[in-house]
Every structure is written in structure tokens, then in C-alpha cells.
UniProtKB/TrEMBL annotation:
Pfam families xrefs: Lipase_GDSL (PF00657)
Domain of life according to the entry: Eukaryota
Family that this chain belongs to: Belongs to the 'GDSL' lipolytic enzyme family.
Annotated source species: Vigna mungo (Black gram)
Protein name from the UniProt record: GDSL esterase/lipase
Lineage: Eukaryota, Viridiplantae, Streptophyta, Embryophyta, Tracheophyta
GO molecular function annotations of the record: hydrolase activity, acting on ester bonds
Length: 281
């Protein structure tokens, strides 16, 4: 979301809502409620000891009350109706939770996706109740091409580093179900608030293209990250003491899960028409 806000010219940095020094101006122009490592599955943030999505929703309600104290109820309602809401979650549910630990193995990948989608729908409906009308929801990436997934599923970590399609296939199927559910939600006119729009943001195909036709995008490295070994490190394992590659622009991935700034820029440029249409709706 930081990247989208910057490239859209809204603000250079989207500050976290929990920043104790958050100014009134920042409150009005937009904040982030995200917590790295969270997900739609209630177990996912528990495993990572991060902020759950229901708790993020509570923070959003607190934020709204603070905004009402500054702008009044009528202007706050207008503000909410015209604000842009960007939601990106689900990858950690599969990669960190479902595939890595056995707790959710009573689900198949299909039924686990359906379980996640019920939480997605509940979350969107709660945002609608609070006045959100312009919501962009990001799909899953080609999970089998994430360096961490390749590392954990390769017979030889150093020499056999191709994408593992069975994991990417799960992402493709989930994305199809997600698009279908969002379509059905908007068809249910009795429950959809007036003026509500939901836009699906595809990152699977553009990221997949960058990986498989990386020369066309100016990338050299596609199966390891720039930080550390690039095979397993992510979040706190990439820090000020970590080795960093000399030229991140040659890498698709910054760490073992997240793209580099250059890769994010390509993703944003593909998504921009949908984002612009949603903002201007």
C-alpha cells in the first residue's frame, strides 16, 4: 500500500495508525492498519504474534472516531465514502500457516480457500458498515515461485530452484474463487451499500511474467531474494546486520517472499487502470 500511495501521488509514506506521533494531517490523508505476517485465518497472526485482522478493524473504528472528533460526523461519512481501501492478505495463510504447520490439515487446499473467503466476505461487510465504499482486494501471487517455497520444497536447495507449480496452482484456484465471490457480493443488491465498488487486483500474472520472462524486465535473479542468502530470510531476519546484494534492481524479490521496489513498480503499473477507475468511481 505504501507503494500505491506513493505512485498515485497521494503521499510519500503511509504511516502506521499505531504511530504515537501521528499528526492530525496524517489522520486525514491516510494511514495503514496492516501488520506484516497477518492473514484472514485467525490462527495466522497467532503463529506470528502479529495484529489480527479483527483487531485491525477495531483500530480502524478508533481511527474513525478520532476523525469524527476533528471533522464532525457528516464530513467523516463523506471522507469514508470517498476513501480508497487497499486490502492485501492471504499469502501468509497458505505459506506460513497451511503449508508449513499441520494445524489446518483437516482442510483440503480447496476447502481452506473457502474458509478464508468467508473471512474475506465478513471483513468487507464490516468495512461497508463503517462507510467504506471503494475497496481494492489483492489476489495471491504465484506461491510456488516464492524463494521460501522453492527452498522448502527443493531436493537440492542450491541447484534445483524452479517454481513448484502445485503451490502456484492453489493460488490460481483461490484467485478464481475470490473473483467469483466478489462478483456475487456485488450482485446481491439488498446487502451492498449504495455506491460500493470492489476491484480485484491481479498480481499473479504480472509477477509470473516477471519471473518467467525476467530478461524483458531487466531482472537477473528470480529464485532468491536480495537480502541475506535470499533463500529463507524474511521480515526480522532481514535487518541492518544482514548481507544485502549490490543491486536490488536486478532481483525480483527483496527477501524470500516480498518483491523488490522495482518489481512492485511493475505490479502497480499493471494494476493502475483498475485502481484509477475505483478511485474515480
Amino acid at each position: 500500500m505504501h507503494v500505491a500511495a506513493s505512485y498515485l501521488g497521494l503521499k510519500d509514506l503511509l504511516p502506521p495508525y499505531l504511530d504515537p506521533n501521528l499528526s492530525n494531517k496524517e489522520i486525514i490523508t491516510g494511514v495503514s492498519f496492516a501488520s506484516a505476517g497477518s492473514g484472514f485465518d485467525p490462527l495466522t497472526p497467532t503463529l506470528g504474534n502479529v495484529i489480527s485482522i479483527p483487531k485491525q478493524l477495531e483500530h480502524f473504528k478508533e481511527y474513525k472516531k478520532r476523525l469524527e472528533g476533528m471533522l464532525g460526523e457528516r464530513k467523516t461519512e463523506y471522507h469514508m465514502n470517498n476513501a480508497f481501501f487497499f486490502i492485501s492478505a492471504g499469502t501468509n495463510d497458505y505459506v506460513i500457516n497451511y503449508f508449513s504447520v499441520p494445524i489446518r490439515r483437516n482442510y483440503t487446499p480447496l476447502t481452506y480457500g473457502q474458509f478464508l473467503l468467508q473471512h474475506v466476505k465478513d471483513f468487507i461487510q464490516n468495512l461497508w458498515k463503517e462507510g467504506a465504499r471503494k475497496i481494492a482486494l489483492v489476489g495471491l501471487p504465484p506461491m510456488g515461485c516464492l524463494p521460501i517455497v522453492i527452498t522448502l520444497n527443493s531436493h537440492n536447495v542450491f541447484f534445483e530452484r524452479g517454481c513448484v507449480d502445485k503451490y502456484s496452482a492453489v493460488a490460481r484456484h483461490y484467485n478464481m474463487m475470490l473473483q467469483h465471490e466478489l462478483f456475487l457480493m456485488q450482485l446481491n443488491f439488498s446487502n451492498v451499500p449504495l455506491g460500493a465498488k470492489i476491484s480485484y487486483i491481479d498480481i499473479y500474472e504480472p509477477l509470473n511474467n516477471m519471473i518467467h520472462w525476467h530478461e524483458n524486465f531487466g531482472f537477473d535473479e528470480v529464485d532468491q531474494g536480495c537480502c541475506g542468502s535470499g533463500y529463507i530470510e524474511t521480515t526480522f531476519m532481514c535487518n541492518g546486520f544482514s548481507f544485502v546484494c549490490s543491486d536490488p534492481s536486478k532481483f525480483v524479490f527483496w527477501d524470500s517472499i516480498h518483491p523488490t521496489e522495482k518489481a512492485y513498480f511493475h505490479l502497480f503499473m499493471v494494476a493502475r487502470p483498475n485502481i484509477d477507475a475505483l478511485i474515480n468511481a
